[in-house]
C-alpha cells in the first residue's frame, strides 16, 4: 500500500494548485479557503490513455502503473485523517482506459468520504478533460474546490502537446462548473493550471485566456507550472522553462486581480509577447507610464498608490488609513512598503522631508 501511495503521490506532483510546501511524497501543505492545511495529494490511477508530451504517465511510457479502488483510497484517507496527518484531500487521476470511467472512480471516492465516513472537510476534485459533462454536477456537489486544467492557452497550442485533449471540451466543462458555482455549490472555488513553455505559447497568449477566465468564468485562481522536461517524454530534449518566467506570470496575475487596466497590463510585454526577465511587470509598467509619477503619498488615492512599485494593496490601504497624522519613512517601512522600489516613484519633495524627519 505504501508503495502504491508513493507512486500515485509522485504522479500527482505536477499539479501546482495552491501548494506551499511538500511534507512527503503524498502530503502537501496547501492554502485553502479555511487556511493552511496538510492535504493528501494523490492520483486515483496513473494509468492513462492520453499522450500529453510533458507527462511521465502518458500511455506509451514504461512506468510502474498503480491504481486505487474508491473504497481503498477513502479508507486510506480516513486512516491518515484520524491519525492527524492530513486534513483534506486533493484528488486527481490519469485518464485510465477512458476519462469518464476514471472520473467515476474519483466521484465514488469522494462520495464514500462524504456519505459513508461523513467527512465534511476540504476535498479538491479534478474534473478530467474528456470526461462526460454530466459528471461535473456530482463533482461540484461533493467537492469544496473543483478544477480542470487547460495546460495550454488555445486549441492550436494544446494540439502541440496532446493529440487527444480538446480545448473546447475543457472550456465547456469549465463553463459547466461555473454554472453550479452560481447555484451555490463549490464554495471553495474553481481553478485551472497552465504548463508554461510546453506548447510554444507566449506569455501574451496565456494572458489573453487568463483575462477571459477571470472575467467570464470568475475563476478563483490560475496556477502556472514551469515546464520541467522529464526523461522518457517527447519533451525530454526541450529546454526547461526558467522559473522566473513562471514567477513573472504570477506577478502579472496579481496585477490583473488588483484591477490594473488591460492597456496598462499590455505594457508589461516585450515586442515578442513575453514578460521580460530583467524586471517584474509592475516595474515595467511603471517605467512606461512616467506621466503618473511621482505620486504624492499624502494625497494619492488607493488606485494610484497601487501603481507604485513596492506598494501592494495592504500597504496602500495602511497608508490611506494612517496618513492623516503624517507618515515618517520608518512608518512606510513598518507598513511593508519596499522603499528601494518605491522611492523613485514617490514625490521628491516629500521624499526629502521623509528623509529629514
Ligand atoms: S491526461 Fe495527460 S497529463 Fe493527465 S495523466 Fe494522462 S498523459 Fe498525463
What does this structure look like?
This protein is α/β, with parallel strands linked by helices and 357 residues long. The chain folds into three domains: 232 residues, Aldolase class I (TIM Barrel), CATH 3.20.20; 47 residues, no CATH class; 68 residues, Orthogonal Bundle (DNA polymerase, domain 1). It has 15 helices and eight strands. Strands 1-2-3-4-5-6-7-8 form an eight-stranded mixed β-sheet. It starts with a helix and ends with a helix. The C terminus is likely disordered. Iron/sulfur cluster (SF4) binds next to loops. Iron/sulfur cluster binds next to loops.
The CATH architecture designation of the largest domain is Alpha-Beta Barrel
- Stated plainly, the CATH topology of the largest domain is called TIM Barrel
Q: CATH first level of the largest domain: which class?
A: Alpha Beta
Bound molecules: iron/sulfur cluster
* Form type: globular
* First-to-last CA distance: 66 Å
Kindly give the count of domains.
Answer: 3
Let me know the largest β-sheet. Answer: 8 strands, mixed
Weakly predicted, low-confidence segments: 352-357
Amino acid at each position: 500500500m505504501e508503495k502504491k501511495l508513493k507512486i500515485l503521490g509522485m504522479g500527482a506532483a505536477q499539479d501546482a494548485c495552491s501548494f506551499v510546501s511538500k511534507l512527503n511524497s503524498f502530503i502537501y501543505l496547501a492554502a485553502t479557503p479555511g487556511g493552511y492545511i496538510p492535504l493528501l495529494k494523490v492520483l486515483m490511477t496513473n494509468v492513462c490513455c492520453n499522450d500529453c508530451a510533458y507527462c511521465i504517465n502518458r500511455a506509451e511510457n514504461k512506468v510502474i502503473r498503480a491504481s486505487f479502488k474508491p473504497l481503498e483510497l477513502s479508507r486510506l484517507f480516513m486512516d491518515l485523517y484520524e491519525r492527524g496527518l492530513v486534513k483534506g484531500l486533493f484528488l486527481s487521476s490519469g485518464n485510465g482506459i477512458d476519462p469518464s470511467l476514471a472520473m467515476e472512480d474519483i466521484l465514488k471516492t469522494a462520495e464514500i468520504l462524504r456519505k459513508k465516513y461523513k467527512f465534511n472537510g476540504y476535498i479538491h476534485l479534478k474534473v478530467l478533460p474528456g470526461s462526460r459533462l454530466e459528471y461535473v454536477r456530482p463533482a461540484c456537489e461533493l467537492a469544496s474546490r473543483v478544477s480542470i486544467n487547460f495546460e495550454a492557452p488555445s486549441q492550436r497550442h494544446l494540439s502541440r502537446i496532446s493529440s487527444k485533449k480538446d480545448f473546447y471540451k475543457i472550456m465547456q466543462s469549465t463553463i459547466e462548473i461555473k454554472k453550479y458555482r452560481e447555484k451555490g455549490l463549490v464554495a471553495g472555488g474553481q481553478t485551472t493550471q497552465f504548463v508554461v513553455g510546453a506548447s510554444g505559447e507566449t506569455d501574451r497568449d496565456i494572458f489573453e485566456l487568463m483575462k477571459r477566465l477571470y472575467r467570464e468564468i470568475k475563476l478563483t485562481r490560475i496556477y502556472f507550472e514551469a515546464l520541467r522536461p522529464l526523461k522518457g517524454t517527447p519533451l525530454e530534449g526541450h529546454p526547461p522553462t526558467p522559473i522566473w518566467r513562471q514567477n513573472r506570470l504570477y506577478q502579472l496575475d496579481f496585477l490583473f486581480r488588483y484591477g490594473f487596466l488591460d492597456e496598462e497590463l499590455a505594457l508589461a510585454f516585450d515586442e515578442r509577447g513575453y514578460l521580460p526577465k530583467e524586471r517584474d511587470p509592475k516595474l515595467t509598467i511603471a517605467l512606461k507610464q512616467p506621466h503618473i509619477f511621482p505620486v504624492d503619498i499624502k494625497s494619492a488615492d488607493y488606485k494610484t498608490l497601487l501603481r507604485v512599485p513596492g506598494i501592494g494593496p495592504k500597504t496602500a490601504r495602511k497608508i490611506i488609513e494612517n496618513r492623516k497624522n503624517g507618515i515618517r519613512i520608518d512608518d512606510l517601512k513598518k507598513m511593508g512598503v519596499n522603499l528601494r522600489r518605491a522611492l523613485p516613484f514617490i514625490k521628491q519633495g516629500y521624499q526629502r522631508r521623509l528623509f529629514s524627519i
